[in-house]
Amino acid sequence: MEENTMNHQTRLRAPTKLPPQLTSSIGHGFTQSQSQSVGLQEISDSQNNARAPPTLAGSNAGLKRGLPAPVSQPEAKRKNLFERAGTEFPNKLGGSLGATSTRNANALKGATLKDLNRPYGTNASGGAFAGPRHIPSNSYTSTNNYASVGPGGRPPSRSHARARSTTRISRPATSLGTRDEGHHHKSDSTSNAVNANNNTNSNNVTDIDERVGRMDSELQKVREFMESTEKNNANVKEELEAAKKRAVALEDERNELRSEKARLKDKLDDAERHVRNLDFDLQQERKRHERVCKEMEDDHRRALAHKDSDFNREMDKLEKLQQEFEEKCGAEAEARLDNLSKENKELRHVLERQKRDHEHDIQLLNDDIHKRESELRKAEEELKKAANERKDLEQHLRGHVETIDRLRKRAEDAEERLAKDQGHLGSQIQYLSSTLDNKSERIQALEEEAKALQAKFEQEIENIKLAARTHIAQETNSLKLKLVKEEERRHKLFEQVQELKGNIRVMCRIKPPSDREKDALIKFNPRVSELDEEKIDGLTIPTEREDFRMPGKMIPGKPKDFNFERVFDDRCTNGDVFDEISQLVQSVMDGKKVCIFCYGQTGSGKTYTMSKRLGDNDDGIIPRTQSMIFGEVERLKALGWEYTVEGSYLEVYQDKLYDLLASRHSKPEPLMVDPIADELTIKGHDFTLLHDERDLDNMVKTADNNRHTAATVKNDRSSRSHSILVLKIHGVKKNEAGEVVKVRKGTLNLIDLAGSETPDKNGNPQIYKEGVEINSSLSYLRTVLANLGQGKTEGVDFRSYTLTQLLRPSLGKGCRTLMFVMVSPLKENENETIRSLEFAKDAQKVKMGGNGGPKTSRK
Ligand SMILES: Nc1ncnc2c1ncn2[C@@H]1O[C@H](COP(=O)(O)OP(=O)(O)OP(=O)(O)O)[C@@H](O)[C@H]1O
Fold it and tell me: What is the pLDDT of residue 80?
């Protein structure tokens, strides 16, 4: 109930959400009509809703005014305004308000504006005046678009009056107020009129802009109000629906309870009937029993009496006979007496038996009486139970009756409330729909205007968009051109830098010692780069030699100096390594042949630097290259390039070339390298087309699994072969006609060489054999590089070993080769480390020119 009241109040308060101007306008209009309209007064009184009644006289008038009317129409304009004030809206509010407003409008027709500005209730002649207290002389000047011009408008405040008097000068001549002024100042000079006209013309534009602005905001407010009204309406409808549903539910409940009551009543009647029957039966049974008992008692008594009298008679007879005997007969009499006493005895027996029988009968009768009595008790208990049941049922029934009464009361209350609500809601809906009608009309008018404005704005926006799009397209094109030029410039600069860096660039990486190895380390004496203080590009390793004057005594020898492009010390990560070489990888996209190989003693960290690191994030060169290449393919796509990537993963094991991707189910067949082709070509072997990074990753994983590795003294998982990942990257750029205008063919070889080692003759023969073969192929590589380093460009023999045959295209003209020399930091490996560094030093001297013609082969 309380909730209902709350909802009800909330509903009725809803119209206060109107825009403030609208609310004030509506409020004033309604207060006036309230005194004259009974129907509305009811709404207002009962709903406390005086603020809600719909009147948009002010806003409507303001809107319909639109542009200033021609000078010849002011009278008609003013008439319309008054008429509107009285006739447009009251119809929706009730006939009485319409009548009053019309009366007011009619009364106003005859009054001058001076009259209208007088206090409410008087006219110029002091007579009663039923018109408004104030009619704004010109609502253009009003800051409140919703200011009421209808009955009940508030008298203007001083500030309003001031505002009116100042704006009157610039007001259009056709406006109400201007006309009013004209009426008062007919005697003003013509020059004033001209000035007023000029002012009016100059202000018209501003006026229109302001009004458009005002209309926009008004439209917005009306839309908001409309939305809130619609929401309100929907809420009211919903609540009405809910109330109806509740009433139906209550009705159903009442009907159910009625049928329950009838059912219970029937049950009660049945129980009462049953109790009555039981009562009656009991009475009957009791009576019958009493009668039977009495009859039996009587019978018994009668039988006893009879037997007694028989017995007495016999006794009398006996006494008589005895007397006779005594009197008459002697012995005979005595015999007879004996007989008689026998007879007597027998008779006595019979009598006793009969007595016993009678007693037995009495006993049976008593039992029967007991049985009957217990039946009677049972019947009485049942009767009691039935009475209790009856009591319970009566109580239950009373409860039900009370519930029914309560529910009936509730249903009646609900019905009453529903009726009330329906009444309220009806009037509310009526009011809201009339408001809705008004608003709809108003909105329609505003929407039409808004549509026109919208169309204009949209056109303008389209024009601006078109201009912007053209501008953006031009900018994009010029930026694209710039980007392409920049790319080409970068390309050229990069080329120059690479050329400056030499054909074979060498970088060194020192493997960090493990914790247990930290005691005996080589003293590397790193040298900081002159170009970048954070980088090292040289090493000096102190040496010792035997003092020839004192054999066995070691004295410091000439230190070994090594300068490389970069030295990565034991603190550097694979990330640092890739940062340094990423541009070289990038140049493959520009169509370069690049070869990166890792050389070094077994266990010095070649595979660590090349491959994917499992378990930590410090991936090596191969996985980082994978993502870089496919990232570049995507980036260059935006610049019009289309790239295809093909790959192969090979292994040189025991100087034979194998495909690491071939199935390992059968023994793999060795492959043959084309000894003279400019590019690496393998007979009968196809490269795999790699669509994306995942394809390449899968390929690398397969190869890693297939590679020959074994546990050696220096490395648990020593590579027993040289592995080569070959990527052929082919890019084409087409013009708009689809013709190929540029082609780039790059090749990237990433080579993880097997480690140089001192083979142990006494160890595993297979590992020894592998070690010998690895060492031979590496030392032949040194020979080849030494030849190239001595400036031999022709006739260098690459064919003696499969490894050098494979590397030949990478060591030819136009190739960029980067050698990583990996070294151990341990003192025990110092000789091997110095040997590796010296080999790297030689490799730096290589000047690549020719491809090396076929020469003598060891095969
Ligand atoms: N920079 C490094 N940081 C940490 N651990 C390293 C580094 N370099 C190598 N290692 C570790 O040293 C061990 C040998 O490295 P790796 O297998 O890369 O040597 P390798 O030169 O490839 O040997 P081989 O020639 O026998 O194949 C590995 O356990 C590896 O994890």
Answer: 43
